[in-house]
From TrEMBL:
This is Neurotransmitter:Na+ symporter, NSS family. PANTHER family: TRANSPORTER (PTHR42948). The keyword Membrane applies. It is found in: Membrane. It is a multi-pass membrane protein. It holds the Pfam family SNF. It comes from the Bacteria. The chain crosses the membrane at residues 12-29, 41-63, 84-114, 140-158, 170-191, 211-238, 250-276, 296-319, 340-359, 379-400, 420-440. GO terms for cellular component: membrane. InterPro entries: Na/ntran_symport (IPR000175), SNS_sf (IPR037272), YocR/YhdH-like (IPR047218).
Amino acid sequence: MNRDQWHSKLGFILAAAGSAIGLGAVWKLPYVTGTSGGGAFFIVFLLFTILLGTSLLLAEFVIGRRTQKPPIEAYKELAPRSSWHLVGILGIFSSCLLLSFYAVVGGWILTYFIRSLTGGLTNPPDGDYSTLFQSIISNHWEVGAAHLVFILLTILIVQKGIQKGIERASTIMMPALFLIFAVLVVRSVTLEGAMEGIRFFLQPDLSSLDGGTILFALGQAFFSLSLGVSIMVTYSSYLSKKESLVRSAFSIVGLSIFIAFLAGLAIFPGVFAFGLEPSQGPGLIFAVLPAVFSEIAFGSVFFSLFLLLLLFATLTSAFSLLEIVVSSASYQRPERRRKAAWLGGIAIFLLGIPSNLSYGVLSDWLIFGDTFFNQVDFLVSNILLPLGAFLIAVFVSWGLKPSTLQDELLRGSSLSTGFFRVWLFFLRYITPAAILAAFLDVLGVW
């Protein structure tokens, strides 16, 4: 059976980096950095991303490229007559849940982008952008329509396949994302008083670190690389056997870190330059940044550029989340890709409606004291992703033969067996232990 493949190694790297970057780097990382002590948190995050994130990313690459199959079929081939294929099912389920509320945030971004072009974000009542944000997300017709448009954009790209859809879109969006970021960073760091924000972001204050912050940085490292839901198993299954998995992994991790670095430089100098608090939480982008840009010359233009950047980053991640569903549904029948994309996308849209209404008509519908949106976010980010990451690390490092792993990992690479041994050690012992520690902390075991 002929399967679609990436047209080039660059296309694969840009698409995978786009999946990894997304809201994790541009939306979530800045606000968790702001609420977790700034530079010290960011340094710990970098270390975890390089050491542990890379090891797990390579593990997913090995599964996908070795089998050239989507997750469920891949686990069945590598571990026949076992229950390991449930890890693939877990990944698909987690991706559906993640995209269901991820697309809601994508709709918010789309709404803000349109409003920024039409003047709908200027001069809020009493200058309070937090109140404006709450009024926008509680308008179920506006954010509902934006939610639907975001899902439709995702479906339209994914239905076209790997080369003509995801790869082509990513090779346009990712360079544009870097270009827009460069413009924003230059403007941000040249603001009067910007140096205080740069110091907050890059100068570590080790006194702000504690066990919870360190474990939170670990979770953010995995979230920022789209690990634990077998997305990278799916993407690497389309990769040629001639390519080096190690070089690809380090390229993707490097791009992800670079974007995280640019995101911090684009946001924190402006926040501090205008005397605002960096610890605003999830509303940092929607409630704080509009106030920052409103005080800058041509601020509306820069804010529109920022929202366009955020929209690109969100879409590239959404492509990968829908692709794991479509790839699995159409594996035996590639001609069914279009149908699978539409059915899967619409089903995920319907699944996301309660999240979309969580700040409007369903705001009083609380589950264990919190909104449906926040509970789904918690379930995916703090339970399903760490669980999937733990199982993948155990499966690859203990369930597969070392000779098989070494052959696949070093294929197309000039690296020695010494690198393989170090990687296997991290994957067998360090990565699972770190994930388990973070997982137990989230569950309140210690």
